[in-house]
Every structure is written in C-alpha cells, then in structure tokens.
Amino acid sequence: NGKRGAVNLAELLDVTITIKYTALPGGEPFTDAVKGLLKPYDTVRYFDLNYDFHDDWIAFLDSEETSLTLTFTPDQFPNLASSRITGLFSKFELRGPGRAVSLMLNNDDTMILRDEQFLETPGLSVRQRGTDWTFTVQGDKANLKTVVLVVGYRADV
C-alpha cells in the first residue's frame, strides 16, 4: 500500500522490478557498434539450499546420510555463457554456536566449502542436461539450518 512500515522488510523474500521503456532505432551502424561492445561478463547466482532445493534439503537433514546430491542445470544460471563455474562463496546458517561445519564438494578434498569463504572451483561446471554436485558434511550435520551458495560464472548479454 506504499505506507512506511506497512511491510516487514525482514520477511521479504522476493522483489520484482518492472521497467518499461521505448528505444528509438539508431540505424544499422549504431546497432552494429552496440553489438560489438556486448561482451561476456562475470556474474553470480544466489542459492539458498533450503529454499531452492527445499524437499531435497529437508529430506537430507532428516536422514542419517552425510552426503547430498543436487542437480544444477543451465536454466538456473541466467545468460550462462559457458559451462564453467568460476567459484563459490558459502554461508552456513547454524542452529547454534561452536559446532563447526564444512562441506566437501564432489568428494574432492581440495574443494572444501567453509563458512563465509570464497572457493575457486577449477573443473566445476554445469552441463546442458544438468550436473550433479555432491555435498558431504564434515562436522556436526545436526547444527545445519541451511547453506547459502553464491555461484560465480560468465554470462552473455
């Protein structure tokens, strides 16, 4: 309704911004010049495992399993230019303090996701038909509420 305080911002999950504009044609030389400037760029995609993979995440937390496999597909990465994932930043939301948790990615002990740390991911990709990423808990799984991943990749315009 537009009144200050009418919405509790702490409960806000999604925001949609719609922009309407009219572009005037600039002719073929202008179009070609603009297309020449459009280059792939670095970008990120935010995943909250509890939100984006809710059923799988809840089943994992309720199980005795220490590994969770999730399928990531190109359609989850807007304007994906190549299959390569450049890096992951992880944030763990824990149930309580003092019980450390980390996640090993794809059974590779050089790819350990730690709370509030960036990890370069050579060799990690998302194939056309999807790619399974396996996360193995190291530490106290019972202390996990959710994991947030900020996934870096290259995008096209």
Major beta sheet summary: 4 strands, antiparallel
Low-confidence stretches: none
Number of strands: 8
H/E element order:
HEHHEEEEEEE
Q: Round the Cα radius of gyration to an integer and report it.
A: 20 Å
Average per-residue pLDDT, rounded, comes to: 91
Short description:
The two termini are 35 Å apart.
Structure commentary:
By secondary structure, this protein is mainly beta. 14% of the residues lie in helices and 39% in strands. The protein has three helices and eight strands, in the order H-E-H-H-E-E-E-E-E-E-E. The chain has helices spanning 28-37, 49-52, 54-61; strands at 41-48, 67-72, 80-94, 101-105, 112-113, 117-120, 131-139, 144-155. The strands form two sheets. A four-stranded antiparallel beta sheet has the order 1-8-3-6. It has a four-stranded antiparallel beta sheet with strand order 2-7-4-5, with helices on one face. Strand 4 and strand 5 (112-113) form a beta hairpin. The mean pLDDT is 91.
